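ugh finaly. both done.
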Amino acid sequence: MHSNDRKIDLTGFWEFRLDPENRGIKEKWYQESFNEKIWLPGSTDEAGYGVKPLKNQIHIGRLTREYSYEGAAWYSVEIEVDDTWLGKDAILYLERCHWETRVWIDGESLGCMNSLSGPHVYLINGGISVGKHRITICVDNTKKLNLGFWPHSVCEETQTNWNGMIGRMELICLGNLFLKDVQVYPCLNTKTITVKGIIRNSSDSPLDCRIQIKLSPANDLMEIVMEKEEDLLSVKGEQAFEVNVPITANMKPWDEFDPNLYIANLFVQGSGNGNILNCRTDVTFGIRKVSTFDRQLLINDRPVFLRGALHNAESPLTGYPSVKVEDWEFVIRKVKEYGLNHFRFHSWCPPEAAFTAADRLGFYFLPECPFSADIYRDYPEAKYLEQEAFHMLKTYGNHPSFVMMGFGNEMRKDEDFFDALLNNMREADNRRIYTCDVNNDRFAKRMSPLYNAQFFVTRHTQYGSIRLAQQKRFKSMYSVDGNDLDYTAEIRNIHMPVILHEAGEWAVHPDFSEISKYTGHLKPYNLEHFRSILKKRGLLPQVHQFQLASGALSRILYKEELEACFRTPGMAGFQLLNIQDFPGQGDALVGLLD
């Protein structure tokens, strides 16, 4: 792999070796080459590395991995750098890793990262010398932290605990002057856009810098709707900057109906000691405001009713989420056809491509940290939760689709820690609203929101259930017809938006015709098992009738569930489980789509 301008694309075949006994670091495998090959981006499952299940290990409560592996795996590749990189800072950018990575270049360690929610980015101070070099990465998907029961970031029920690296994999030459951590904060109240970031000057001399910011519509970069310049004197090392740019009358806000996007083009030129250096970057953003008023969620000061569904990282073809914008656009367009306007990402955060697609199509996201666990502030998991939360803000914070955020699914225990973290998040970034968790602790029955939460996702309050299946009309001794059901009494005295957690879960009979669609390495042995049972009992000819009958009942129940929300004054929305089937937890065939 050779340098091309200021970037080396690391896509391709890498040398590879499994390390199930975890001997590699002790035996200094980072100084070695390996005999086996693997294609990256990708996973060990896709490449056929790992253990095949025995017949008695086939799962009937979820899909089964054709190959599975948990432990350290080593990846190595040779690159070549030309003289344009000499003496300039560089980064190794790995978009999505699962889970922990350790990196060496020519046997020298660059450190370790373990984010499940965002990229692993390694800074190479002083750059890389001219010539050939070897990059070695150890990826370890061992569960070293307790993320809880069925977190969809790592559990086998959905995307699986895969080992590998996906998305962009690049070695990037930054130069001696570059911009980092650029964040754009639009404020409709003051008609101002605040652009914040850091300028890094790693040259030998301080630089007097001038920063120029140009704003253009994303669909017409030739049109400059606003331009601003400011001077930054004597920049050495890293220096923060903040520039305020006015919002002009012809700039349009972003929402689900009009997803107007803009590009902020930043250009910095620095001079000092006879040197002139420059750098630039582009940031896509939307002008929008997320706020609440009593039980209403507001986008740009207009009430919004959230009609959502869960996205559980279901990826039956690959076992990991897509990093392609077109794939996410297909999914979002499909759910919008069914009248939905947002996704809740259950105990995981989607990749950049998902946010980009949602920005373009006008769709609201509620990503979560990778948890479904009991946490106390002195647990190592508490530090990891905080680390992941702020990494998500830094990585995806400019996306207008990122309107809400949670810490995970059904979190429990240290409410003072959660409340303090909520406060810190709100102070750090006011571009979205925050909550601790969803379903708000169904086991310990936290039936009211935390003090610093800004919305409440639940299926029960201190006044009763707001879920259809738990209403009296679904008890065997009591049945009521009609359209009178609502949750006015149940949400009284809650003065923030209330969203129904995991609405529905009404099952439909398995559709065995979809078995042929499972062409990846996650196998539908569960569906094959169910089909064999029906065959033995002579019921296969009636399968289509079972589907139609159960589907019709499911549709009626979903309709009743949602209409109860619609007719409740002040209800902020619902999150369906689900519009499509859920592949795990005992085969939750709860969707009208496959």
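ok and the 2nd:
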Amino acid sequence: MSELQALIDASKVESFTDPSKASDTEMLGILVARHCEWTGIEILKVAVEALQDANFHTMACAIEEGIESIENNPQDDASVETRQLLQSALDSLK
């Protein structure tokens, strides 16, 4: 068992009343959110790194563009352009 899997398993026991109902992916997402202190941009940056590692470069690039748009326009993080960039990244998963 990897150290990451051991961390996921231990965290499920600590975080859920019925750990068997929580997926590893759900728990990993919770751990990432906690590590990033629930900051959406930082969570997206982690996702970009994971996508790049898995060779989903186009999708990672689209999300990076969305991140840059949000960082350059902090008062307008729900702009149409940003939503479209992030949606195109999600659509490329299909």
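summary for the 2nd one i guess: DSSP finds five helices and no strands in the chain.
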